[in-house]
Amino acid sequence: MSPRLLPSTPFAVSLVLTVSLALAGCGGGPTPTTFDLSAPRDFGKLTGSRAAIVVNEPTTVQTLDSDRMIVKDSSGSLSFLGGAQWADRVPKLVQIRLIQTFENGSRIASVSRPGERIVPDYQLNTDIRAFNIDAASGSAVVEITAKLVTDRTGHIQRAKLFSARVPAGAVDGSGAAQALDQALSQVLIQIVRWAA
User: Fold this and answer.
1) Which of 36, 140, 151, 192 could make a disulfide contact with 180, Cβ separation 3.0–4.6 Å?
2) Which of 140, 32, 29 is nearest to 84 (CA)?
3) What is the mean pLDDT of each run of 10 residues along the chain (196 residues)?
């Protein structure tokens, strides 16, 4: 039995083109390279508080709440860097690496995520204001605000904005990931020293 052909009408041609483009979008293009962020280790073992801290997942704007790398141009418009992605959503990665930085620095008695059955003295609330490549300066920019809140009363003990800029060798996946990782490491160390 021979295959049946669709009649050559404008609608049929349009339908075939639409289906073809949809299928090309589903499987076309190379898989993006996945990059991870690190938790700093080499900043010394520092004595600090005996407090227990819960580190909440950072808040941020919708654009940064993803696994995509962001480039900001001189006009302020944001775009995604093609061919590259993070291993997880940026807020989740920052939360995990911040907890690990506390552990690596031995600054406090206990650090955990919410829901780990630890009774905390403090909650650390953060907000990611910037986590992108600034195309105009060729730099990775990381800005995070932090608030240390007493768990029982909800009183804000202190709050501060932390930021770092690191030159990016190139605005490609590898260069952007390396520069953003270095900038984040500087900010994480600042937060850990401050919180203790």
Assistant:
1) 140
2) 32
3) 44 37 51 94 71 94 95 92 95 96 81 86 96 95 97 92 93 92 97 88
- The pair of structure tokens assigned to 31 is 């898989």
Q: How far apart are CA 180 and CA 173, in angstroms?
A: 11
3-class secondary structure, 176:
helix
The first and second tokens of residue 18, run together, are 């639409």
**What is the structure's pLDDT at 79?**
92
Q: Give the model's pLDDT for residue 169.
A: 82
Helices (H) and strands (E) in the chain, counts: 3, 9
CA angle (139 as vertex; 65, 37 as ends), nearest 5: 45
Structure tokens at 177: 């990931």
pLDDT score recorded for residue 28: 55
Q: How far, in Å, CA of 58 to CA of 37, rounded?
A: 15
DSSP state string for 78-136: EEEEEEEEESS-HHHHHHHHHHHHHHHHT-SSEEE-TTSS---SEEEEEEEEEEEEETT
The pLDDT of residue 6 is 42
CA–CA separation, 99 vs 126, rounded Å?
A: 12
